[in-house]
Amino acid sequence: MARENWSSASDLEMTEHQSNVRSENKQDKVVIEELETQIDDMAETLSTKHKILKEKLDLLENRLVSTKDKRKNFEMLKEKLEEMGNKVQEKENSHGSLEDVKAKQVEAELAIQQCTAAISGLEHCKGLLKGEVSRLEEFVKEREEELKRQTEMTKDHDEQERKRRQWLTDVVELHSRLGGVSVQSLHGDCVVLEIRSDEHIEDQGDEVIGRTASPLILTIKYRLDGGTRPVFGGATVNLDSLSIDDLVDEAVLSNDVAGFVFQVKRRFKNQQGLIREVEELQTNYAIDWEPSHRRIRVMLGKSGKIVCILKVDPLYSSGQGHVHLLGVEGGSYHKEIQHLQSTGSGRNLTQVIKDLQELFINQ
Questions:
Q1: Where do the segments described as Disordered lie (predicted)?
Q2: What angle do CA 299, 213, 232 make, to 5 degrees?
């Protein structure tokens, strides 16, 4: 019985949806693989660049230490030369020696200045290299974090897809067990059902020879409770004249989807009874039926100049609603009309129209 409820269109929708899901998964995996490849290539390039920068920085550090040592030695030499110069001045006839000492002092001072300038330049280069190394390390860190985020997103997506597949399995299994109902399509978190009409004409061999009435399209929205369990979230139908708001409210509280669909089926069947009743009345009366507003305009009296406007309760089809007289156009029985409007309801549409016809039969 359940298999008979599945139409070929439903199978195609299911197959197409599953194909789309697989395609999306493949695309996501390709993106992640490309990102991993890019990061691996980038990591290799950055590692080489980082190694070169570190080597340059180490070399620069060694040169800086060496230059500082030289400057220290020249400063010590300068101090010794100053001491020697003082001693030479104390001696007589030592003019030549004093000149030599002063020349060496000048050379030492110049060497100290050169070392100081070199140290300043090396310190500047060291700062630049350190900044470059820091930026490089920060860039690598950002790429690693990006890969981590993408990996986590992929895991989350896989988990969501696993839950979604389970959700689809549960939903399809549920609705396929409901007789007279077929799954038309699946759209996001919505399942579209077709409830077939039981209105048809049969011959003696129980073979359908008449035109089957249009089916009811019921769209049920689900939501995941706790991210895993599908629960009833709402529903709509394609017929404005069929009210299911009260059934939706009950189903949201109970989460009894099978019971909800059964109630909708029963109400749809009852409404078909109202439609048949209106069609039968139209064979004897001039009736204008507005299903979306549940309003009926019927022409009565001898010449049909009396127009009665009736309103049918949404629950009329289930035997719980009434038929109300909203107004009368062209009638002169004002007291009777006011009385009808005040008491103004009946449980049977056919009987209400017959009573009105008797009231206005002479007009």
A1: 1-28
A2: 105
Q: Which of 265, 212, 183 is nearest to 5 (CA)?
A: 183
Cα distance between residue 113 and residue 117, in whole Å: 6
Q: How many CA atoms lie within 13 A of 132 on its CB side?
A: 16
Planar angle of CA 88, 91, 95, nearest 5 degrees = 60
The strand ranges marked E within the chain are: 181-187, 190-195, 216-225, 229-237, 286-290, 295-300, 306-312, 323-329, 345-346
As given in the structure block, the two tokens for residue 204 are 């003696």
Count Cα atoms within 13 angstroms, Cβ side, for 81.
Answer: 19
186-to-9, 53, 236, 248 alpha-carbon distances in Å: 11, 58, 15, 19
In residues, how long is the chain?
363
From CA 306, how far away is CA 302, in angstroms rounded?
9
Report d(CA 256, CA 235) in Å as an integer. Answer: 13
Give the model's pLDDT for residue 259.
86
Distance CA 177, CA 45 (A): 60
CA nearest 345: which of 358, 334, 356, 332? 356
pLDDT of 259-310, one tens digit each? 888 888 888 887 888 888 888 999 999 999 887 788 899 998 887 788 999 9
Q: How far is CA 279 from the centre of its chain?
A: 46
